[in-house]
Amino acid sequence: MTVEGANPQGVDITKEKNGGVLKRIIKEGSGADLPSKGDKVTVHYTGTLLDGTKFDSSKDRNSPFQFSLGQGSVISAWDIGVATMKRGEVCMLTCRSDFAYGEAGSPPKIPPGATLQFEIEMIDWQGEDLSPNSNGGILKSQITAGDGYSTPNDGAQVEVHLVGKYESKVFEDRTVSFAIGEGSEVGVVEGIEIALLKLKKGEKALLKLKPQFAFGDAGKPDVSIPPNATVEYEVELKSFEKEPESWSLDEEAKVKQAQLYKEKGTKYFKVGNVKLAMKMYAKILDYLDDNGDTESSNLKLAAHLNAALCLLKLNENKDAVEHCDKALAIDPKNEKGLFRRGQGYMALAEPELAKKDFEAVVSLAPENKAALNNVVLCNNQIKEQKKKEKMIYANMFEKFAQKDREEKVSRFGWWDRTHPVTPLPYKDEDVEEAEKEKAMELKKKRDFIETMKRRKLEMEKEKKQEALNESGSGSGCEKVIEDKASAEEVQEDADPAKSVNS
Q: Which intervals carry biased composition (Basic and acidic residues) (predicted)?
């Protein structure tokens, strides 16, 4: 049934109702959902002029077309029309030139000032991917647009309303305030914090979060969320106050901000949130200049030392050593810097380097039992490494000796001449050259074997000497010292307040 007076080309769907975009539904879609601004939509389309001349078709290419809705990546008629389509819907959009390619057109296929028609099939859409690696871990669909253009930065104080759902069941509904980057302290998952960096004041969005950005493999048993669950959140950014950027502050303000980060870092370390503590110490280094005053230099020193402590606990030993290097560049005789670098080297299986650092600590503080004990541990590691090296050399010696025995026979006979040389009807230059090369190769191998024999004899002498030394050294006492060192190290780590008091 045709409504009297209705436009056969469809309904005007422009906001101004100026007839710029007309839509006629050819096939109804399913469900009630519509795509949101920022969603990645997938469609098939065929574009024609008003006289029916086809100028483009994704179906002819057998390749659906994807674009981000509402971002200006397509003609404005598409951003308007596709936003009204349901999944599976097919419609015809009639697009006036000012909503298409304008007065210029798009030669040679689209003439100037042309009104175009597009038959569009909505295949599917998904939210805007905000995950750091663009792997679909955080998908955002806008529900309500926000105000202006400004968005929060890392560290901004925000007030948000959260409604969390799992399989359509609400498990969380609250308003909460926190600093972005520290949301874990108030139970806000990482995916929400990442998404908030893209929201404007007053904006409301639907987030779909995969486990790695929500509750992970632990789940949230107290609200019946199983391990590795994908959850949804409706997030409304009610207000925010940006954290000052370092470039906008004078030196005094930078130092004040750095002191605040240090206090936060110490607080988080004491309660066992090592990752968040590490983040606070890293921020200190971002804020302070290399050419700062004494107070600034002391804060940087403390930040490097405490960052190293955090990284050691996170088993990121290479980075821990680098922070110790930077701390020691500021204060070359800093005991904590030397001690923690030694710990890092030990974890990296570099006992000789570690030993130097622990011995440096002992020279500065002879009463430091932990450093003394670690020197003993380093000696044990060095001794163990030497044993492994001896085994490697011994195996290499046997391998090359066996290879030499197997290669004595050549196509010219036995090199030790215990077997007659294979008679040749004649000798030419190629044969003579081959014999010379073979002889040189054999000489090199024999020289190497002689070197290995000498090395083996030296190692046997070293082994006998070590056996004599150990027979009177009291190895049982060394074991007691090692066990005591481990115990004291654990005791020191049990006092985080002391560890970060830099």
A: 457-467
- Which residues, 6+ apart, have CB-to-CB distance to 265 below 8 Å? 277, 278, 280, 281, 284, 306, 500
Q: What is the DSSP string of 27-58?
A: E--BSS----TT-EEEEEEEEEETTS-EEEEH
Helix (H, G, I), strand (E, B) or coil at 446: helix
Query: Cβ contacts of residue 150 below 8 Å, gap of 6+?
Result: 200, 201, 242
Comparing CA positions, the residue from 173, 67, 167, 172 lying closest to residue 120 is 67
* C-beta of residue 352 within 8 angstroms of C-beta of residue 384: no
Q: Across the strands, what pairs with 288?
A: none
Residue with tokens 């057998």, as numbered in its chain = 62
Query: Could you identify the residue written with the tokens 């294979």?
Result: 422
Q: State both tokens at 240.
A: 């925010």
Q: Which residues are known catalytic residues?
A: 45, 55-56, 75, 101, 118
Distances (CA, A) of 106 to 55, 101, 337: 10, 6, 66
Residues 6+ apart with CB under 8 A from 233: 162, 163, 164, 165, 172, 191, 192, 206, 207, 209
Residue 267: both structure tokens together: 């607080």
What is the gyration radius of the CA atoms in the chain, in angstroms?
37
Token readout for 423 is 């008679």
* 3-state SS class at 476: helix
Confidence class of residue 501 from pLDDT cuts 50, 70 and 90? very low
- Terminal alpha carbon distance of the chain: 82
Q: pLDDT tens, 113-162?
A: 999 999 999 999 999 999 999 999 999 999 999 999 999 999 999 999 99
- Residues with Cβ within 8 Å of 365's Cβ and at least 6 positions away in sequence, in order, are 335, 371
Q: Crossing angle, helix 274-287 and helix 294-313, to 10 degrees?
A: 150
How deeply is 81 buried, as exposed, middle or buried, from its count of CB atoms within 10 A (0-12, 13-18, 19+)? Answer: buried
C-alpha span between 276 and 139 (Å, rounded): 25
